[in-house]
Amino acid sequence: MARAVTPRRKALTTLAAWAVGLLIFFPILWTILTSFKTEAQAISDPPVFLFFDWTLENYSVVQERSDYLRFLWNSVILAGGSTILGIIVAVPAAWAMAFVPSHRTKDILLWMLSTKMLPAVGVLYPMYLIFIQMGLLDTRIGLTLVLMLVNLPIIVWMLYTYFREIPGEILDAARMDGATLRDEIVHVLTPMAIPGIASTILLNVILAWNEAFWTLNLTAAKAAPLTAFIASYSSPEGLFYAKLSAASTMAIAPILILGWFSQKQLVRGLTFGAVK
Amino acid sequence: MGRITLDKVTKSFGEAEVIPPLDLTIEDGEFAVFVGPSGCGKSTLLRLIAGLEDVSSGQIRIDGQDATETPPAKRGLAMVFQSYALYPHMSVRKNIAFPLRMAKLDQAEIDRRVTGAADVLNLTDYLDRRPGQLSGGQRQRVAIGRAIVREPAAFLFDEPLSNLDAALRVGMRLEISELHKRLQTTMIYVTHDQVEAMTMADKIVVLRAGHIEQVGSPLELYRTPRNLFVAGFIGSPRMNFIEGETAARHDAHTIGVRPEHIAVSQTEGEWSGVVGVSEHLGSDTFFHIHDTGLAETITVRADGEVGFRHGDRIRLSPRTDAIHRFDKQGLRIG
C-alpha cells in the first residue's frame, strides 16, 4: 500500500526542500549579487540584499587586470584532458574488474577508494619535488596528469558499476562472433555503456574544474586555471570583495551552466546501480 | 565439416570438479542434444566446446585438429544464447553483420549474406529495427541469423527456447529442425527439456553431475535406457518404477513400465488400484492410480476419453514385452 500523502504533509515537505535548497545555494547567490555591487556596498553593515546600485564595473576591472580567457582555456584543457585520459585508462581497468574479477578485485577497488581519503597535502612535498625534477611545474601536461590520477579511483568505480549491469552473455557472443578484446570494448561494451560513461565524464569534468589544491600549488602563471584566477583576488589588504566575487562568478559560470543542462544525467549517474 | 571430439576433457572450478573425465564424439552433420537436470554440467560442456571456458585437462578436436587452446572466434563455431545476447545498440542488420565485419569481409559480401539470412528467417522487414523493438521469437531468429551468416562448422545452442512461451517454442523447435535439415551442419543443442531432446535430436547425450549416463538416438534411449536415471528422465509422463515382490517375479530389483504400456480395464488385469487425479488432454487421458500395492502412484495413459471417475477401482495390465528390468545398482538387465 502506498503511503498516504496529505496536502499538508506535501506542502511541508516542499517547503523544507526549498529551504534546504536555498540554504545550499545562498553562498553562490550572495557571490553573484556581490559581484554587481560597489566595493563599499559589498562590505556595508547591515548588508544590502537586492537594493543597491547595480554595476558591471567589477567585471571590466577584473577583465582589465587579468586575462580571463587564458585562465578559462587552461581550465578547459585541464578538466577536459584529465577526463579523457582518465577514461582511456579506466575503461580497460573497469572492464577487467567487472568481467574477469579475481578474489582480490573487491580489495583493489577499496584500496583505490582509500587513496581518496588521504589528505592531499600529505603528498604535496614529494609531488612538488617530482614535478621540479621532471620539469613539470607550471605545465598543463603535468597538471593534467595529476588531476587524472586524483580522480581515477572515482572514474574506475563509476564505470565498474555501469559495466556490471551489462550481461556477460553479450560479451561472450561478441567473442564467439570473432571480436578481439579491443573490438569487444570498442564495438560492444563502450556503446552499451554510453549513458554511464557520459555521466562519469560529466562528474569528472566538474571535479577537475573545481580542483583547487593541486592547481594552486603546482602552477604559477602559464598553466594556471580559473581556481588560480579566483585566488589572485583574495588579498589580505584593500577592498577586493566585489572584484573577488566577480572573478568567482566568472569562474563558476561555465560549470554552473554545464551542470544545469546535464542535471538529469548527473543524478542518474550518481544513483545508478544503487536502486534496482 | 564439423566433427567434434572430446578426449578425456575435465573442468574444475577451484576445488569443485564439474566435469569428470569425459569422452564424446559428435559426427559431422549430426544434431546432438545435451540433456539433463539443471546443474548437470551440460551448459559448461557447451561452453568448453565453444572455448568460452578453458578445459582443466584433456583435448577438444574439431575436424581432427586440436582446438583446445584455440580462442572461441577461431574455432569456426557459432553460438545462440539463452538470453539471445543481441547487441542492443545495433540494428538487426548490424547485429547479423557483426561476425562478418569482425571477419573483415567486404561490404558487398556482407550485404549479400545478411540479405540471404534475413530471407531464410523472415526478418527482411525488420532489418532496420533495434532488438528492443522485436518480439521474443523475432529476437531468437536474429540470434540464429547472426549464427548462420558465418557458415560455421557447427552451431551451439544454449537452451535457446527457454525464454519463449509454449506455443512459440513448438514453432521455433520446428524451425531449428528444418534449418538443420537444410544446412546439414553439425548442431549441439543444450536443454533440460526432454521433449525438445526427443523431437529434435539425432543423438541424445544424457548427463548427470558431469557424467554421461547414456548416448544414443531418441528411440534407443526410449526403448533401452541403460539405467534408472535415463529411464526416468526420458519419456513423459515418467516411467513407473516398481520394486519388491513384483519385481522379483521378473528376476529384477526394480522393474519399469511406461504409462503408455499399461492398459486399463474395468474388469481384467494383473494389477488393480483406485483412480486418483485424471488429466484429460483430449487425445489422451492420464490417470494417477493409488492403492496398487506396487508403488505410491502408478501413472497410466489411455487413448482418448476413458470414463473412469475419481475413486473408481480399476484393473491394470502391463505389456509384458515392454517391461524394463534393472538390478540393484540401477543398471539395465538384458
What does this structure look like?
- The complex is a heterodimer of chains A (276) and B (334).
- Helix content of chain A is 71%, strand content 0%.
- Chain A has 276 residues and is mainly α.
- Chain A has one domain: MetI-like (MetI-like fold, Orthogonal Bundle).
- In chain A, helix 4 (68-99) crosses helix 10 (194-210).
- Chain B has helices spanning 42-50, 92-102, 107-120, 136-148, 166-183, 194-200, 218-223, 228-233, 245-248; strands spanning 4-13, 16-26, 31-35, 57-62, 65-66, 77-80, 154-158, 186-191, 203-208, 211-216, 240-243, 254-257, 262-265, 271-280, 284-290, 298-303, 313-318, 324-326.
- Chain B folds into two domains: 4-231, 3-Layer(aba) Sandwich (Rossmann fold); 237-326, Beta Barrel (OB fold (Dihydrolipoamide Acetyltransferase, E2P)), CATH 2.40.50.
- Chain B is an alpha+beta fold and 334 residues long.
- Classes of the chains: A mainly alpha (276), B alpha+beta (334).
- Chains A and B meet through helix 8 and helix 9 of A and strand 6 and helix 2 of B.
What's this model, at a glance?
Helix content of chain A is 71%, strand content 0%. Chain A has 276 residues and is an all-alpha fold. Chain A binds chain B through residues 167, 169-170, 172-180, 183, 187-188, 191-192, 194, and chain B through 50, 52, 71-73, 77-79, 81-83, 85-89, 98-99, 102-103, 146, 150.
Characteristics:
heterodimer, A: mainly alpha, MetI-like fold, 14 helices, globular, B: 334 residues, alpha+beta, Rossmann fold, OB fold (Dihydrolipoamide Acetyltransferase, E2P), 2 domains, 6-stranded mixed sheet, 5-stranded antiparallel sheet, 9 helices, 26% helix, 31% strand, transport (chain B), ABC_transporter-like_ATP-bd (chain B), nucleotide-binding (chain B)
